[in-house]
Structure formats: structure tokens, C-alpha cells
Specification:
Blueprint (H helix, E strand, L loop, with lengths): L4 E9 L2 E6 L2 E6 L13 E5 L2 E6 L1 H21 L1
Antiparallel strand pairs: 1-2, 1-4, 2-3, 4-5
């Protein structure tokens, strides 16, 4: 199963962006979105170090909420 995690761009340097989500920070490649206009503050779906899609803030928060619920349920069943 593949998983893309929403992250927010904090800084851009060429085709690389520094992104953050829930206290985690990563440098990611914007190469796959080179035809898309992205800027600091935008939300992206990140998969194995690559930004694969620009998403809205609402979509990012909804996904984080769902992932938190899944983690909580997993911890309850352990």
C-alpha cells in the first residue's frame, strides 16, 4: 500500500521545498510539480520525498484527522 502525507511548504529553493507537518520537517522534491505554481504556505501530498499533488488546506486537515483516527484505533487494538 502506498501512502502520501500532506505537508505545508515553509520554504522553496528551486525544485526543492522544505515542508512541515505535525512537528515533522522534511526536504522534498518539487520536480513532479514543475508545471504547477507552488509557493510557501501551500499544502502538498508527499510520497517518498516527492511532492505529487497540490491540495487545499481543508483537504490536508481532513487527511491528518483521518490518519490520527487510524493510529488511535490501531493503538487500541494492540
Amino acid at each position: 500500500m502506498c501512502l502520501a502525507v500532506p505537508m505545508q511548504i515553509t520554504k522553496i529553493d528551486g525544485f526543492n521545498a522544505h515542508c512541515a507537518a505535525k512537528g515533522v520537517e522534511r526536504d522534498v522534491s518539487l520536480f513532479l510539480l514543475q508545471d504547477e505554481e507552488v509557493k510557501a504556505g501551500d499544502y502538498l501530498l508527499i510520497h517518498v520525498g516527492y511532492a505529487i499533488q497540490k491540495i487545499s488546506e481543508a483537504e490536508a486537515f481532513s487527511t491528518w484527522e483521518l490518519l490520527d483516527q487510524m493510529l488511535a484505533e490501531d493503538e487500541l487494538s494492540a
